[in-house]
Amino acid sequence: MWPGSVGLGTRPGALAEFTAVDAGCCRPFPKGLPDAAGALVEPFAVGLHATRRSRLARQPGALTGIIGAGTIGLMVLAAIRLVDSAATVMIVKPNPVGAAVARRLGAAVVGPDADAATAALGTPVEVLFDCTGATEAITQAAPHLMPGGKLILVGVLEPGQAYPLPGRHWVSQELECRGSSGYCAVDFDDALGAVAAGAVDLTPIIGGRYPLAEAERAFAELSRLGASARVLLKP
Among the CATH numbers 3.40.50.1220, 3.30.420.40, 3.30.830.10, 3.40.50.720, which is that of 42-179? Predict the structure, then answer.
């Protein structure tokens, strides 16, 4: 994670007309890239980093699942489809907005829960991403992974929270678990390049655009749409 990132630790967010950030955190804005697309590069970098942590690129056509269809879950979906266009992806727990966006981004199966999605897919998956940050993620994931499968934890727990581990299943099935936190500079640069080149279209996730003076209205709209949509504020 880059030092001095806005919104982390002691540095508050950037709901202002101007803000100061470390020069190392900045990149030139590509000419011709719409503002809305540029605003989605950062969360897409999170999804791209998680996909790389899974080593999915070494498994063309992988059967893959995503639990949690909020912004980050959808960004993981977009990153999977960029890295491995042949991958079959199921996504779980969307609201109606998230379900529609997931289908537009290339999900093969959209289910209300992991049991239903796995049943519709007809098989457990090789790689499963948890984007919920729920403490039961490891317990719930095990039945939906093939032997030797991988769980990638993208959601973040609160300090003091812990995952219970169903040890026998994980040992007998030789499952793997990896964490994925944010992104590295190379992930951000590659995400920016992919968006700027039109290799990935993230605009379906945008729920609305508002001037900064209407921030309260924008947050109300975000609450209505749920975590599966992004609402953009333009200073």
Answer: 3.40.50.720
